[in-house]
Amino acid sequence: MAAKNLPPVWNKMAKHAMLPETTHDERARYNFLASLNKHLAHVSQGNQMAFDKRVEPDFKKDHGRGFTTREEVKEAMKKDPHYQAWSALRRCTMEMRQQAGRSLVLRQAEDLKEKAESLNKGKKTLILDKECQPPPYLLAVDNHLMPGSYHTEVIEGDVSAAANYDSGVFVTTAGLLGKFNDGGGKAISHWMKTTHSEFKPKRILDIGCGMGHNVLPIAMAYPEAEIIAIDTGAPMLRYGHARAMDLGIKNVTFMQVEASQTPFEDESFDWIQTTMFLHETGGKSIYKIMEEIYRMLKPGGITLHIEQPQYTDEMSLFEQFIRDWDAYYNSEPFWSKMHDIMPDELMTKSGFNKEDFMQIGVKAINDLDDGKTKADEPEDHGRSPVWNVFGAWKH
Ligand SMILES: C[S@@+](CC[C@H](N)C(=O)[O-])C[C@H]1O[C@@H](n2cnc3c(N)ncnc32)[C@H](O)[C@@H]1O
Asked: How far is the C-alpha of 19 from the C-alpha of 146, rounded, in Å?
């Protein structure tokens, strides 16, 4: 009998030529970690109970007032035994997931590189630039504990960073992103097709495309459009392009370009998309990147950004604190700062009109959980069955 609350197993992931080989034990390790991760998302409800029953009452007794910032909540929660155990276990699952993925891709790094080379050979839709450097804020950290982040190459022509990301992101999200890890891209293209069927973009830019998980559904939804997908990580682009070739998606050009200084002309794109990208940019860069987006967008065009919800005054300090876990313990140094920025201000500072700003919830489409994820289910580590999106049309 299928266990109701277990995440789907790794074997259900869609296969393609670039996906690394896994042994029985490696798959078992991934499945165990995905289940542990999902379990931790559920027992996280105990953190709220600890806060309500112990931490907040004790703080009020000691200080004669309630909490005023999420940092105060953090300092108080750090002393709570439930939170300590939950947080330590969550950190361990993240470390074990990286260790599991990294070890399996390193033993086949040469094979993966050769597969990518053979799929990419002679194609004009992969444009790498040795002069393009990741920005300093990306070089400074191993993003979400990924050894070497997105750009490090252990051999020439390496794709192992992307192979690790692709095979293991299933674990971190407990399968919530779907068979191709493309839930965000599927959701946004479905939203666009259904709510703006009159919109016929000819040229689309995806910024911080990674290995292209979420741009490919957009490319499939608009097969006549020219899609450009940019990133600074060469391993991501090599792997992403090879994966797209294997999946038969030919209208995406993967380019190694830094987002705040692109070579593209003014007003040259109809749609500029980012997915789970802005929270990884630095404090000043996010503004530069949004200005660049405004510059590149055609009048009548749209820009959309899929991110976790911002920390507004309406969000409780406890929720802000628990959402901030990634900033404290999962090597996401800009997470906190980015979620404090008000997206309407970010966009109006870059040139967009305030009245054109929009913030929407876009229904997630997950082809991996057989419709099990319902809109009223508790969120898994902040990943909800509705994707949070902000953006604006340009007039
Ligand atoms: C979390 S990944 C998201 C990948 C992809 N959008 C997706 O939905 O799967 C963020 C990506 O942004 C890239 N990135 C970060 N800062 C960048 C910048 N300034 N210019 C270009 N790419 C950048 C990283 O290399 C990484 O691949």
From this structure: 18
CA-nearest residue, atom 10 of ligand 1: 277
More confident residue, 202 or 382: 202
User: How many CB atoms neighbour CB 80 within 10 A?
Assistant: 18
Burial (CB count <10 Å: 0-12, 13-18, 19+), residue 210: buried
Query: Is the CB of residue 213 below 6 angstroms from any atom belonging to ligand 1?
Result: yes
pLDDT tops 70 at residue 239: yes
Domain that holds residue 61: 10-122+133-172
> Which of the listed residues 169, 231, 279, 289 should we mutate to test ligand 1's pocket, taking the one with most ligand atoms within 8 A of CB?
231
Ligand 1 center from residue 384 Cα (angstroms): 21
Give the pair of three-digit tokens for residue 193.
């097709």
293 shares its domain with 258? yes
Residue 382 lies in a domain: yes
The residue ranges of DSSP E strands in the chain, in sequence order, are 126-127, 203-207, 226-231, 252-256, 269-275, 297-306, 357-363, 386-393
Please check whether residues 388 and 272 belong to one and the same domain: yes
Q: Is there a single domain that holds both residue 213 and residue 237?
A: yes
Which range (174-188, 230-244, 377-391) has the least confidence?
377-391
Strand-pairing partners, residue 383, are 380
> The tokens of 242 are what?
């090879």
Over residues 4-57, the pLDDT tens digits come to 578 889 999 999 999 999 999 999 999 999 999 999 999 999 999 999 999 999
Question: What is the value of pTM for the model shown?
Answer: 0.94
Strand partners, 127: 255
State whether the beta carbon of 141 lies less than 6 angstroms from ligand 1: no
Ligand 1 atom closest to the Cα of residue 151 is 25
Q: 176-208 pLDDT, tens per residue? A: 888 999 999 999 999 999 999 999 999 999 999
In this structure, what is the dihedral angle of CA atoms 336, 339, 341, 345, given to the nearest 10 degrees? 170
Is 200 found in the same domain as 146?
Answer: no
**Overall domain count for the chain:** 2
Ligand 1 touching residue 387 (CB < 6 A) = no
Which two tokens mark 82?
């439930």
Burial class (CB in 10 A: 0-12, 13-18, 19+), 172: buried
Ligand 1 and 169: CB distance under 6 A: no
